[in-house]
Amino acid sequence: MTGRIHIDLFTTLDGVAQAPGGPDEDTDGGFAFGGWQAPLIDDTDGAQIAEGIHAMDALILGRRTYDIFAGYWPHHLEGPDADIARKFDAIPKYVASRGAPELTWRDSHLLGRDLAAEMGVLRERHREIHVIGSIDFARTLVADGLFDQLNLWVYPIVLGPGKRLFTADGPPLSLELLSAAAPSRKGTVLLRYGPTGSAPATGDMSRTDQSAIG
């Protein structure tokens, strides 16, 4: 078995992926828009997110996102969020951290420093592995080509400053669009990308056959 690694991120039109879930999720840099996703989510993207969660058999989180999840989901095994809470509780959870945190949530494991080797082990152990949020860790996986699918929910909002997956000093990448879902009622679009393994190509528009334009 060779499993696939998915990265799931919620982003604005200008690429901000910081603190979509709540005001106190991540205030680094004085970020003032924590919880920006909440007014924009509806049944369409909610169902897409739930579908991805139910398909996964392992979860990878950065340390900050792990602390948020571990502080919330184990306490919601009953009630309206029970299906998601029980799914997260039941599957193995792997944590990327430079330190040695105490991982108290059931079936939680600290990843080693050699990410390429660790991702290889997880691919052999699991069928569908998802990284949720965890921007810094996701950025490393993308830069090193250690992922199979990038799932971007793009919301119709612009925030300006904030943490992004793709930064100005990041490596150049070429991605392949795998699919684009129909937009939600509130204008959110799910875009699925895969790595091509090649650098971005360049050209010269002045030498392009103009008949191919328009």
From TrEMBL:
GO molecular function: 5-amino-6-(5-phosphoribosylamino)uracil reductase activity
Domain Bacterial bifunctional deaminase-reductase C-terminal residues, every copy: 6-180
UniProt cross-references to Gene3D superfamilies, sorted A to Z: Dihydrofolate Reductase, subunit A
InterPro entries, sorted: DHFR-like_dom_sf (IPR024072), RibDG_C (IPR002734)
Pfam families: RibD_C
GO aspect biological process, one term: riboflavin biosynthetic process
Source taxon at top rank: Bacteria
Database matches in SUPFAM superfamilies: Dihydrofolate reductase-like
Name this polypeptide is given: Deaminase
Lineage, uppermost ranks: Bacteria, Bacillati, Actinomycetota, Actinomycetes, Micrococcales
